[in-house]
Design a protein that fits this description.
204 residues; alpha+beta; five-stranded antiparallel β-sheet; 7 helices
Length: 204
């Protein structure tokens, strides 16, 4: 189960709530904060809080224990991805500088890869008021705009992106990388999906 998959997450929470209604309210709040806040202390405290609740519930005997363990495993496995998403949000809201020193307080949650990503973001065009838009081709002769806050993507990279017609993922390649101010955006932010990651065979 992918934690960031809202459908699966809501299904798991619904099943857990049948047996642990009180804990589910707090768990839901932690997960919502985890996926939306730009405040480092709230993000990492929510992370710890969710882990602690799930660890406690995983020892209980109930029909929902399977969902608890799946969510716990997913949360732990997706830690680096969640921290990266948090850094992305901070970059987009202009709060990246504020969290840099705070991350040292949560070293147990911040991997070397996440720290390198943060360092790369500080010098990215996005930090100078520009948004990074990539034209992606799927080999059908057309291109589609996807956005990113990762300044390391270059022309020719094969990337994994969500499709516009469904929740499935597809692999395309970047044919152009452009930088726009908010006023220059070719497609509004709320209508432009994000690049998910570099395709496995192209990882640097």
């Amino acid at each position: 189960m992918a934690l960031l998959d809202t459908i699966k997450l809501n299904l798991a929470l619904k099943n857990i709530a049948r047996y642990f209604p009180n804990e589910t309210k707090e768990l839901t709040k932690n997960l919502n904060d985890l996926r939306s806040t730009c405040i480092a202390s709230l993000f990492f405290d929510s992370f710890r809080g969710a882990i602690q609740i799930l660890q406690k519930l995983s020892t209980e005997k109930s029909a929902s224990t399977r969902f608890v363990r799946e969510m716990l495993s997913s949360l732990e496995n997706e830690r680096d991805g969640l921290v990266k998403s948090f850094i992305d949000r901070c970059a987009e809201t202009g709060t990246l500088d504020k969290i840099e020193n705070e991350l040292d307080t949560y070293k147990d949650f911040v991997s070397d890869e996440n720290r390198a990503y943060l360092d790369g973001m500080k010098g990215s065009p996005r930090q100078t008021g520009k948004y990074i838009y990539c034209s992606i081709s799927f080999g059908d002769g057309r291109t589609y705009y996807y956005r990113t806050t990762d300044p390391t993507y270059t022309k020719g990279d094969r990337v994994v992106v969500p499709t516009y017609s469904s929740k499935l993922e597809s692999i395309g390649y970047i044919v152009k990388v452009e930088h726009f101010t908010l006023e220059e955006l070719p497609v509004p932010l709320n209508r432009t999906k994000r690049i998910l990651r570099l395709a496995e065979s192209d990882k640097k």
